[in-house]
Structures are given as C-alpha cells and as structure tokens.
Amino acid sequence: MEQYELDLLAKYSEKDEELKRLWDEHVRYEKQLERYENKIYLTPGEELEVKELKKKKLAGKTRMHTILDKYKIKEGS
Q1: pTM exceeding the 0.70 threshold for the entire prediction
Q2: Which end of the chain is more exposed for a tag (fewer CB within 10 A), N or C?
Q3: Core vs surface per residue 25-51: b (16+ CB within 10 A) or e
Q4: Structural domain boundaries, residue 67
Q5: Residues 6+ apart with CB under 8 A from 25
Q6: How many domains are contained in the chain?
Q7: Phi (first) and psi of residue 26, to 5 degrees
Q8: Helix intervals (H) in the chain
Q9: Secondary structure (3-state) at 76
C-alpha cells in the first residue's frame, strides 16, 4: 500500500468498523505467512494453508482498496 492509502486507513479505520477489521485481518494474515516463509520445507498441509492465507489476504486487500477509493473521492483526490 502507498503511504497516502495508509494515511487514509489510519484516518478512517476508527470510524469504519469494516475497514478496521479488514486491516486487522490483513496484518494477522501477514504475520501467519511470515511464519511459513522462514521454513525451509513446507508440508502439503502447510502449503495448502499458505495458499488459503494468500487468497484471504488478497480478497481483504481488494475490499480495503474499494473502501479506500470511496474515501479518496470524499477527500477530493
């Protein structure tokens, strides 16, 4: 995310529960994925979990961008 989007996120996440929830999930998924990145070998189950986490993270990020676009319009950018 660009700095401008992070600034919008910080500004509006206090008022927008969905945006806050999506950001919290994004951070949680990122931390979970980092655990797997440090491993040399992933079991098939772990590989599946990594794929699922990446899908969830991407879906959440897409939704966050949709919400942030609404706030960009509101801000006049």
Answers
A1: yes
A2: C
A3: bbeebeeeeeeeeeeeeeeeeeeebbe
A4: 3-75
A5: 56, 57, 60
A6: 1
A7: -55, -45
A8: 3-12, 17-37, 44-75
A9: coil
Residue 36's identity, in one-letter code, is Y
Burial class (CB within 10 angstroms; exposed 0-12, middle 13-18, buried 19+) of 61: middle
Running along the chain, 77 residues long, what does each successive block of 10 average in pLDDT? 89 94 97 94 97 98 95 83
CB 60, CB 29: distance < 8 Å? yes
Looking up tokens 């960009």, which residue turns up? 72
The encoded tokens of residue 55 equal: 């899908």
Q: Which amino acid is at 37?
A: E
Token pair in block for residue 72: 């960009």
Hunting for tokens 């969905």 — which residue is that?
18
Q: CA–CA separation, 4 vs 22, rounded Å?
A: 17
